[in-house]
Amino acid sequence: MKKTLYLMAGHLSIILGTIGFFLPVLPTVPFILLAAFCYSKSSTKLHQWLLTHKYFGPPLVDWEENGTIGLKAKWLASIMISLVIIFRLPYLKIALVIRIIVIVILIGVLIFIWSRPSQKPKPTIQDNQKP
């Protein structure tokens, strides 16, 4: 039962991530990360498919193995988030408090993204020595 729920959540995340690729309001990366997590808990085959995917694979492998986010991805995310804050949020017909909450969340996302390393850590002398 648990595997089935993870599998369904993985499928839903892939669908939402794909939609988010075309709609600037819906983010792609969090859904792809969620799909990778769900597939790792439910289907080795689908998890491997995602890790070896032409576009999603390399960043997912970097994230899973080293917790890194590439510099290109950081800049792209920063530009897209900035565009949403500058050109989209001011024109939405929603309460000011909601717009402020969204801006705070997006700034929090940027802080998180830029707090992650851009490259995998270089091996140290201790890493090369056998115990």
**Terminal-residue CA separation:** 42 Å
Task: Give the H and E element order.
Answer: HHHHHHH
Describe the global form: globular
Residue runs with pLDDT of under 50 for 5 or more positions: none
Radius of gyration: 18 Å
Mean of pLDDT: 87
Largest sheet entry? none
What is the number of strand segments?
0
What does this structure look like?
By secondary structure, the chain is mostly helical. The protein has two domains: 1-67, no CATH class; 68-120. It has helices spanning 2-22, 29-42, 44-51, 57-66, 71-88, 96-115, 125-128. The mean pLDDT is 87.
Summarize this entry quickly.
The chain has seven helices and no strands.
Give me some keywords for this one.
single chain; 131 residues; mainly alpha
Chart the SSEs and their pairings.
Elements: H1 2-22, H2 29-42, H3 44-51, H4 57-66, H5 71-88, H6 96-115, H7 125-128
